[in-house]
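Review box. Two proteins, two foldings.
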Amino acid sequence: MSELKIFQKTETLHEARWWEPEPGGKAHCYLCPRHCHIGEGQAGFCFIRVNQGGKLYSLGYASPAALQIDPIEKKPLNHFLPGTRVFSLGTAGCNMGCFFCQNWDISKSKQDQVNSAHVPPEDVPLLALQYGCPTIAFTYNEPTIWGEYVVDICKAAKEHGVKTVMVTNGYITREAFHDIYDHVDAANVDLKAFTENFYGKITLTHLQPVLEMLQWLKAETDVWFELTNLMIPTLNDDPGETRKLCDWILENLGPDVPLHFTAFHPDFKLRDKPRTPPETLHRAYGIARQAGLHFVYEGNIHGGHGETICPSCETVLIRRAWHEIVAYRLTAAGSCLTCGHKIPGRWASPDGKVAALSSFNGEAVQRKYQALNL
């Protein structure tokens, strides 16, 4: 086990990737489809990619503004190491402008407006192991915008057998996609709606780049991924739109990609809409199942469809109460105990035991980061 470096807060700027210089000292950032052209002393739309002296720097590198231990089901991921805990971190900023953002306090903030800790990438998997987490999640704000930090954490995590997860809006360019996702083990992608009107007016972005990213994930990587559709009353909950979304998933991604319909609650700039009624999620669930999707879930409501059902024999394989597993009927390899059908996913024992955790000595990590108060 490598020794941890002495804790030290640093303000050293980390030069960004995925950019090119332009005449007049501007920097063209091509990390996401916004293609920001950033002037001297200015930041891109995301707030944390800044031009200083004609070079682009990432203010989010090694500077997480949020650190927390979550159940993996909260990401939400239901087919990736179910029942385990995940070490979650995020920074400031975002490359979308969602009016309904539920983490707006950091995603709509600049780096100097949040309290951040200096956590170098090589320490992140050590912290994860210290807190009994076999996985690290890049989450809370959009991790694409701190892709340099993501990649370096992933490289360090692999040395310790720790998995990595992107919780993302999917807004990334072709040029940066493989640079990041070739290092990642799993992802949950927010497919926020299925109309360009919603994306343009409510997220200040576009739908097509997200659909293209999902096709790249399916066709060109081994990343396990699941989808989330947050249903907002009157904006993206029309049954016709839901059917089109499900049909697109079936045609382009296949029936085995899990789809989570989750309930909206009023937040940030979208406080004039009511909470999503459970009946809306139930209706969407029925549409998705009727369309032919095998694994459909409801989130953010009590008593919703949270069970994993075998598509072959209809046995309930995993029963959940909110984010907790209360029944588990899969083999270690992820097969149905009733009929033997192999369920797509990345499986582990529901108690979350991982070999790497049993031999890990985390005293040095604990001493160094005891003030983080996780």
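Next protein.
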Amino acid sequence: MTESTLAYRSDELLDSDDGRPLRILSEYLGPLRAFRRERVHDTIVFFGSARLREDGPLGRYYDDARELARRITEWSLALPCDARRFVVCTGGGGGIMEAANRGAREAGGRTIGLNIGLPHEQRPNSFVTPELSFEFHYFFTRKLWFAHLARAMVAFPGGFGTLDELCEVLTLTQTKKLPREIPVLLYGREFWQEVIRFESLARLGLIGAQDLDLFQFADSPGEAMDLLRPRLSESLDGPTPAFATTSTCRCGPAQP
């Protein structure tokens, strides 16, 4: 940094170890500013594998994620609100994330992508609304934004990343670290019951029996909507679901 360079304009400082707190803070303040500007009140988060392809052996999950995101967005756009409600939010990459962003866009809504640079499969998909496309360096700030505005989470089949994100939200809910309950849908009962033996965790005393109520299963877009719609309708008059309340939204009654 030269003597005439303002500190906050110095790339040398911002890229240094000393600048790490500023980089972390920027990954909070940048999305916060964009969400306020775009009047995003809350989100529905879709998790799932970036490796899952529309024409692959698990392609039906791509189609279902696309259809469910379309239905959620059509329903939310019909709400008499002065803010954008229940905006579909994904990790911004391919596979299930692309499918959900695609469905929301096809319904005429805005849609969020919280992308992070990874060595192989993670690249921003083309269906994310440009003003709501974000690139993260730190996993934990990206995870914060998944939870920050979420009203519900839908977990489709996925690998390590999906399991990590799912367990994080379940842990935050279980330990009351969120000021509200987030409905969690595990999409694809057969997949999830094969991959995680939840009942065994409860039987062995590693989670409580009541923790099995923290999530529900769904096997079709219609079933998922039937589970989500009543819970989302209950939240229409609530404040922004953030760690610090930043705004309120005026909404009329939801249509059945």
